[in-house]
C-alpha cells in the first residue's frame, strides 16, 4: 500500500457475503481478539498524551470492526498498550526488521501476559519506500506470526484503520486485488476501491472484493483462524459496557446490536434482555430461544487436523474451537498438523502455482537454497541478510515446485524463478521458485511454511528441519489409553463410547474442551428402556405371586379330569359273603390300581378286614 491523503468524512457502506463453503465457517461469526500497540514515536506524535493515543487506537479498532462485519467477522479490541517511556523492541525505518522484532516481542513477552489472537503495531515511524504496513500471509492465530505493523500515515484515524484492515487481511490469507485476478469490487476506484488493493489513496476503501472473500473462504477451509470461534471475554473488552454493541456484557441477558439492525426474535434490543420465556438468544447451541440438547454437533471439523465441537446442554454457545495437537500425522502421513492445518509442500505449490503443481525433487531444494540470495535462501537473519540453507534444512527454505500455471497465481507482484539443474546421468530438472519484488507488504510468501513436513518424523520450524518430537504429541497422546487423540489444549478427545479426561471409562466421547460427542438423549432412552423392562418384570412377578393358588388349582383340576378320562372302566367286584358293600372306601389309586401313563406302579396298601360283629353273651 502507498501513502494516502487525509480525509475528513467517510461513508461506510457494508454488505454481507454468502460465498458457499465446505464447512459452515462462513455462517459462523468469528471473533478476532485484537491488541493494538502504539510505539514511542506514535506517543510523541500525539502530543505525549496517553489518553489521546488510546482514544485514537480505539477509533481505529472500531473502523476495522465495521469493515470486517461484512465478512461475518467481529474485531474485538481486548487490549491497548502505549510505549510512553521507550520502545520495548527495536523500531526502525526498515519495515521487515521492525516486523520481525515486533512479532518476536509479541511471542515472548505479550502473548504469555495477555492471551489474544492477533496484535498490530501502530507506529509513528515513517517506513522506507512506499511501504506503510506489513504482515505475514495466512498467519492468523499462530504464536509466531499472528500480527503486523502499520504506519500511522494520516491525520484521520481512518487511514491507519484501512491499512490495519489490509494487513489483517494478509493474516487471514487474502492476497492483493491485482488486475490479472479479475476481482469484483462494488466501489469504483474514484470512490476508494477495495481494501486489498496494492496501493490506495483518497478516498479510503471500506469494502472487500470478491477475490478477498474467496481467499478468506479458502483459508478458513484449510484451517487458518482456528482460534476465532470463541466469543471474547466481555470483561476484557476495551471501551466499557454498552447495550447495542453486539457483546453480552455484565448485566445484559442478550445483545443483538442496535435497534435498527436487530433481527433476533429472542432479544429485546432496547433493554438487552430476553423476551418472554426465552432461555437464550445467541449461539449455535440456541434454537428457537431454547438450549439444544447436550451432544448436538455445533461445529464440524473443517479439515483433517480439526476436531468437532458439541453443545453441552447448559450453554447457548458452542465450545471454543479445538484441533489436533501439533505434530499429529495427517493426509496419510504426508504431512503433520500445525496450528490446526495440515502443512505439505504439495499444498503450498498448489497455492502458489495453481492446480497441477507439485513439489520439485529434493535436489532442487538443496541446490537452489544453498545460494543464500533472493532466489534461494532460508529467509533473512535479524540483520536483513539472506541466509543460506544447510543441506538438512533445504526443504525449509524457498519452496521449489513443478507444473501448474505459467506464473504464480497468488495475486501479488511475484514472478517465476526457474532453475535448470543438470543431472549426472544426463538430462536436466526444472525447478520453479517465486520472487516477490521489494516494496510488497508481505514477507516472502515463497518460503516454506512453518510446520511443513521436511522428512520422516521431521518438520520445519524457524527455517530448520527439526524432529517432530519437539511438539511432545506422543507423550500427550499416551495418556488417552489408545481410545482418543490429544488436542491443542493437551487434553484427550475420546472416541464415541469413552469418557474424558483419559478415555479409560465408558462415556459419551469428546473432551473436556469440546463437549460430549453423543447426545445425552441416548442415555435417557437407554435408561428409560431399562426401567420399563424392570418395571414390567416386577409387575409380572407380583401378578404371578398373587394368582399362584388359582393357577395351581386350575392346573390340578385339569390334570385330574384328564386322568379320569384316561382310566379304563372297572370290573364289578364279587359280592362279599359277609354282606359288606362292594365299594371300597379308597380311590383306585389308593387301592393299588395302576393307570397306564400315569407314572410308576404304586406300592399296594393292604386292606384290613373289619372285625366280626359282636355277639352279646347270654345272661346268667
From TrEMBL:
Please state every residue range assigned to the domain named EGF-like.
472-504
Its signal peptide is none
Q: Does the keyword Thylakoid apply?
A: no
Which species is listed as the source?
Lates calcarifer
Residue intervals of the Disintegrin domain: 240-326
Q: Which InterPro entries match?
A: ADAM_Cys-rich (IPR006586), Disintegrin_CS (IPR018358), Disintegrin_dom (IPR001762), Disintegrin_dom_sf (IPR036436), EGF (IPR000742), MetalloPept_cat_dom_sf (IPR024079), Peptidase_M12B (IPR001590), Reprolysin_adamalysin (IPR034027)
S-S bridge residues: 298-318, 476-486, 494-503
**Zinc as a keyword?**
yes
Cellular location(s): Membrane
**Lineage of source species:** Eukaryota, Metazoa, Chordata, Craniata, Vertebrata
Coiled coil, from the record: none
Q: Topologically, how does it sit relative to the membrane?
A: Single-pass membrane protein
Q: What is this protein called?
A: ADAM metallopeptidase domain 12
Amino acid at each position: 500500500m502507498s501513502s494516502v491523503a487525509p480525509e475528513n468524512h467517510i461513508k461506510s457502506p457494508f454488505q454481507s457475503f454468502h460465498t458457499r463453503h465446505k464447512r459452515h465457517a462462513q455462517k459462523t461469526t468469528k471473533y478476532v481478539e485484537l491488541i493494538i500497540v502504539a510505539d514511542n514515536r506514535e506517543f510523541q506524535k500525539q502530543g505525549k498524551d496517553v489518553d489521546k493515543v488510546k482514544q485514537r487506537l480505539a477509533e481505529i479498532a472500531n473502523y476495522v470492526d465495521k469493515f470486517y462485519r461484512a465478512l461475518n467477522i467481529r474485531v474485538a479490541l481486548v487490549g491497548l498498550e502505549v510505549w510512553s517511556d521507550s520502545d520495548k523492541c527495536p523500531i526502525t525505518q526498515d519495515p521487515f526488521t521492525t516486523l520481525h522484532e515486533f512479532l518476536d516481542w509479541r511471542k515472548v513477552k505479550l502473548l504469555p501476559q495477555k492471551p489474544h489472537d492477533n496484535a498490530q503495531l501502530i507506529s509513528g515511524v515513517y517506513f522506507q519506500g512506499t511501504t506503510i504496513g506489513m504482515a505475514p500471509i495466512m498467519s492468523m492465530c499462530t504464536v509466531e506470526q499472528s500480527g503486523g505493523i502499520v504506519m500511522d500515515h494520516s491525520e484521520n484515524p481512518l487511514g491507519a484503520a484501512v491499512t490495519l484492515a489490509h494487513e489483517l487481511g494478509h493474516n487471514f490469507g487474502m492476497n492483493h486485488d491485482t488486475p490479472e485476478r479479475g476481482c469484483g469490487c462494488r466501489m469504483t476506484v474514484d470512490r476508494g476501491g477495495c481494501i486489498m488493493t496494492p496501493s490506495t489513496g483518497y478516498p479510503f476503501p471500506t469494502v472487500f472484493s470478491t477475490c478477498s472473500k474467496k481467499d478468506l473462504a479458502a483459508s478458513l477451509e484449510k484451517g487458518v483462524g482456528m482460534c476465532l470461534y470463541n466469543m471474547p471475554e466481555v470483561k476484557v473488552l476495551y471501551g466499557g459496557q454498552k447495550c447495542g454493541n453486539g457483546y453480552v456484557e455484565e448485566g445484559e441477558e442478550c445483545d443483538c446490536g442496535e435497534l435498527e439492525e436487530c433481527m433476533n426474535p429472542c432479544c429485546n434490543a432496547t433493554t438487552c434482555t430476553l423476551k418472554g420465556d426465552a432461555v437464550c438468544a445467541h449461539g449455535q447451541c440456541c434454537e428457537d430461544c431454547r438450549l439444544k440438547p447436550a451432544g448436538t454437533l455445533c461445529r464440524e471439523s473443517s479439515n483433517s487436523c480439526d476436531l468437532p465441537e458439541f453443545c453441552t446442554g447448559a450453554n447457548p454457545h458452542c465450545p471454543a474451537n479445538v484441533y489436533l495437537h501439533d505434530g499429529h500425522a495427517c493426509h496419510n502421513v504426508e504431512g503433520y498438523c500445525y496450528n490446526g492445518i495440515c502443512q505439505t509442500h504439495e499444498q503450498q505449490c498448489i497455492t502458489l502455482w495453481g492446480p497441477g503443481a507439485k513439489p520439485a525433487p529434493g535436489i532442487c531444494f538443496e541446490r537452489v537454497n544453498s545460494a543464500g540470495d533472493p532466489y534461494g535462501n532460508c529467509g533473512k537473519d535479524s540483520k536483513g541478510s539472506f541466509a543460506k540453507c544447510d543441506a538438512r534444512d533445504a526443504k525449509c527454505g524457498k519452496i521449489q515446485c513443478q507444473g501448474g500455471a505459467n506464473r504464480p497465481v497468488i495475486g501479488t507482484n511475484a514472478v517465476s524463478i526457474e532453475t535448470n539443474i543438470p543431472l549426472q546421468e544426463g538430462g536436466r530438472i526444472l525447478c520453479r521458485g517465486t520472487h516477490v519484488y521489494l516494496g510488497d507488504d508481505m514477507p516472502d510468501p515463497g518460503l516454506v511454511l512453518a510446520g511443513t513436513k521436511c522428512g520422516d518424523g521431521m518438520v520445519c520450524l524457524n527455517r530448520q528441519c527439526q524432529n517432530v518430537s519437539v511438539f511432545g504429541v506422543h507423550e500427550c497422546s499416551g495418556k488417552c489409553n489408545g481410545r482418543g487423540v490429544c488436542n491443542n489444549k493437551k487434553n484427550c478427545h475420546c472416541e464415541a463410547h469413552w469418557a474424558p479426561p483419559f478415555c479409560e471409562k465408558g462415556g459419551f466421547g469428546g473432551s473436556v474442551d469440546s463437549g460430549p460427542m453423543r447426545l445425552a438423549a441416548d442415555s435417557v432412552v437407554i435408561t428409560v428402556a431399562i426401567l420399563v423392562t424392570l418395571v414390567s418384570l416386577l409387575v409380572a412377578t407380583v401378578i404371578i405371586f398373587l394368582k399362584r393358588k388359582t393357577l395351581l388349582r386350575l392346573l390340578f383340576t385339569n390334570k385330574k379330569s384328564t386322568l379320569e378320562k384316561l382310566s379304563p372302566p372297572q370290573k364289578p367286584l364279587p359280592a362279599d359273603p359277609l354282606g359288606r358293600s362292594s365299594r371300597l372306601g379308597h380311590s383306585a389309586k389308593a387301592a393299588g390300581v395302576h393307570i397306564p401313563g400315569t407314572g410308576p406302579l404304586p406300592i399296594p396298601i393292604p386292606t384290613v378286614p373289619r372285625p366280626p360283629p359282636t355277639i352279646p353273651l347270654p345272661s346268667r
